[in-house]
Amino acid sequence: MAFVQCDFFSEVLGIGASMNVILPQATSQQIGMEGAAAQSGRHPVLYLLHGLSDDHTTWMRRTSIERYVSGMGLAVVMPTVNRSYYTDMKEGARYWTFVSEELPQLARSFFPLSDRREDNFVAGLSMGGYGALKHALRHPGRYAAAASLSGALDFSGGSTTLSPQEYARIAGSREEVKGTDNDLFALAEKAAQLPADQQPLLFQCCGTEDFLYQDNQRFLKHARSLGLQLTYEEEPGDHNWDYWDLKIQRVLEWLPLQKQM
Asked: What are the distances in angstroms from CA 93 to CA 10, 12, 54, 178, 194?
């Protein structure tokens, strides 16, 4: 594998931005780790999103994500969006436009990443779980699959560690969020209207001791009532890296990329 720490200028944000990138490399002499290249010239890619208190370094620092993907021929792009909740903020920067539009275009211009729907996936934890499903449900033509680990999925009415003041700066009021493209429940209803082969595959997991467990249960019930193609898993676990390090391995097993190899 190759690991790249990439600093660049964002025209959307008007500031310097950062992402960490793992790129496939076929190797035969690494001790203790297999290395595999992508099947074609452009790599399938997983956009891996961080939580509220983290940044683009957190997945590399707190999991073995590079080792987990080493034999898959899969690139991983890990951006920073600060405490934006993957939104174009009410009072702040346009982080949703940055991460959903500008970032993939820049990443593909810097690195040999595929732009085909069947090669693009997105996953994240907590705030990033919300961001991951938001990517796939808002842009089902771009992503084949999305995974939420302990996601903060009920942004309009569920639990959050944001203060009321910070929530207002990000999104306004909860009533303003309901029914909009920042509301996963509304986005799920739109996605359910698509033919099954145009809907992204969804993966959702949450530990039973997690403070977001009930929010996840509400989204699960809603998604299943709509007939979305969602795989759900739960087991004992809390809102911590012991759980996420375990479950990201399960997400990688689940990705439809596995069926193509």
From this structure: 11, 8, 18, 21, 31
pLDDT over threshold 80, residue 118: yes
Tokens of 51: 């939580």
Q: Which CATH number fits domain 2-255: 3.30.110.70, 1.25.40.20, 3.90.190.20, 3.40.50.1820?
A: 3.40.50.1820
- The tokens describing 218, both together, are 């509400």
pLDDT digits (tens, 9 = 90+) for 200-213: 999 999 999 999 99
- Enumerate the domain spans of the chain: 2-255
3-state secondary structure of 38: coil
Which pLDDT score is estimated for 261? 40
Amino acid at 218: R
Rounded (to 5) percent helix, strand, coil in the chain: 35, 20, 40
> Is 20:47 a contact under the CB 8 Å cutoff?
no
- φ, ψ dihedrals at 259, nearest 5°: -80, -15
- Sheet strand arrangement including 15-23: 2-10, 15-23, 75-79, 45-49, 120-125, 145-149, 201-207, 230-235
